């Protein structure tokens, strides 16, 4: 039986033989594992597709226990990402974060479209990489069902709340009373509005928006910690490489 779907290669793992195992984020099947037989050989018809960032239409043979890639129509290799150290660092970060926050064979077309857009944006000129990173982290809270409570109601006790104390543990803004019981981060109204804007707006709108670098730095720090806490994420290995560039 054959299964045809558009997909983005998240990860490529070489085997002891001539094969390469791929982690694909697919439009129709979610995150899937498949093997590209013989792809380590430059003469293989699958060699060009067996690399991270490749996007195309994959035909998967589902007869065996491990799916095999039958053929690929590459629509975008994104080879220019690997030509620049900064775009490569951000690209690796986005792919790893996508891999860490998705489950095998769970269809999520919203997340699929978002990561495809993010990778496409990396090869465009003057792309605000830090803004993409902040926006992806914020949107991941919503995609994974852990969007923070940013309304005038305490995330801990449910009482009316008019202060801007953010608790990662409680999942949003907490009132004065509850803020004494947990670690909080002091925000202001403008900062909260920026987070809400990122949650709601399309990524194509966000990349055209000017947001102060200090806001982006703080959002990245808060929401990496937020996702790690609520999703119990493994350490993001690519973060060290990314942050070593600055």
From TrEMBL:
UniProt keywords, alphabetically: DNA damage, DNA recombination, DNA repair
Stored InterPro entries: ARFGAP/RecO, DNA_rep/recomb_RecO_N, NA-bd_OB-fold, RecO, RecO_C
UniProt cross-references to SUPFAM superfamilies, sorted A to Z: ArfGap/RecO-like zinc finger (SSF57863), Nucleic acid-binding proteins (SSF50249)
Domain of life: Bacteria
Record Pfam families: RecO_C, RecO_N
Domain DNA replication/recombination mediator RecO N-terminal as annotated: residue spans: 1-76
Family, similarity comment: Belongs to the RecO family.
PANTHER family: DNA REPAIR PROTEIN RECO
Biological role stated in the UniProt entry: Involved in DNA repair and RecF pathway recombination.
Alphabetized NCBIfam families for the sequence: reco
Listed name of the protein: DNA repair protein RecO
Organism: Fusibacter tunisiensis
Lineage: Bacteria, Bacillati, Bacillota, Clostridia, Eubacteriales
